[in-house]
């Protein structure tokens, strides 16, 4: 049975390419699945062999630790810019997320605004 070793959702292309290259350099046979047209499937890198999956996860963990050490925190402006780019790429998801946030806020605040 195949083992998921790396999820690709919300992963930048350059990071995904580096993980693919890391697996290929270490002779780990893997295959990739996409999220599909409606973005409901599991996008990821999978390995069929259990021993190779363990080795792949260890290599990916080491890579992620090294990547985290070189990262720096983003500013609020960068966060807003990233959200706007995500909203432009996924307008339906951004719209429904905004509607859900507004609905939850209105339900949370409404009891305090009604003074009868």
Automatic annotation (TrEMBL):
One Pfam family named in its UniProt record: DUF6164
UniProt keyword list: Membrane, Transmembrane, Transmembrane helix
Sequence intervals crossing the membrane: 94-115
Top-level taxon in the UniProt lineage: Bacteria
InterPro entries to which the protein is assigned, alphabetical: DUF6164
Name of the featured protein: Uncharacterized protein
């Amino acid at each position: 049975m195949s083992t998921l070793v790396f999820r690709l959702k919300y992963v930048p292309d350059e990071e995904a390419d580096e993980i693919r290259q890391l697996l290929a350099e270490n002779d780990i046979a893997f295959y990739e699945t996409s999220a599909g047209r409606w973005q409901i499937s599991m996008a990821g890198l999978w390995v069929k062999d259990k021993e190779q999956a363990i080795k792949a996860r260890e290599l990916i963990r080491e890579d992620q630790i090294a990547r985290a050490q070189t990262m720096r925190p983003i500013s609020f402006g960068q966060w807003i810019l990233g959200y706007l780019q995500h909203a432009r790429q996924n307008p339906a998801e951004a719209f429904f997320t905004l509607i859900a946030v507004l609905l939850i806020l209105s339900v949370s605040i409404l009891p305090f605004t009604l003074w009868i």
